[in-house]
Amino acid sequence: DDLANKYNLYYRVHVQGIGWMDWAKNGETAGTTGQSRRVEAIEIKLSDDLANKYNLYYRVHVQGIGWMDWAKNGETAGTTGQSRRVEAIEIQLIEK
Q1: Most CB atoms closer than 10 Å: which of 59, 65, 78, 87?
Q2: pLDDT for residue 90
Q3: Residues 16-51: pLDDT tens digits?
Q4: Average pLDDT in the 52-74 region?
């Protein structure tokens, strides 16, 4: 169990009409289901033990904009307050 708590991937999403939701981890659902609400942005980060060894880069394809610049290690990818949905995401884990 210590190993499971030591190595985690955390993420949260900004959802239409709600805003930033709580952090989820390791395969938990981020966002809503059955409410027809769009995901507008995402933040992803590694647990400290992983963050010491790796950088996590990610970018999103946003409605009406296309691929946005790369974000990393907990930064925001996407838009807030523009009513645009995230349509795709690309993630890379790169050793430091």
Answers
A1: 78
A2: 98
A3: 999 999 999 999 999 999 999 999 999 999 999 999
A4: 97
Are the CB atoms for 37 and 17 separated by under 8 Å? yes
Q: At 88, list the tokens.
A: 């795709």
Contacts 24+ apart (CB under 8 A), 80-85: 80/14, 80/19, 80/40, 80/41, 82/40, 83/16, 83/38, 83/40, 84/38, 84/40, 85/16, 85/38, 85/39, 85/40
pLDDT confidence band for 6 (50 / 70 / 90): confident
SS3 call for 39? strand
d(C-alpha 37, C-alpha 16), whole Å: 5
Q: Are 35 and 21 in contact (CB under 8 A)?
A: no
C-alpha distances (whole Å) from 57 to each of 1, 17, 22, 43 are 27, 27, 21, 10
CA-wise closest residue to 36 among 15, 60, 21: 15
CB distance 10 to 4 below 8 Å: no
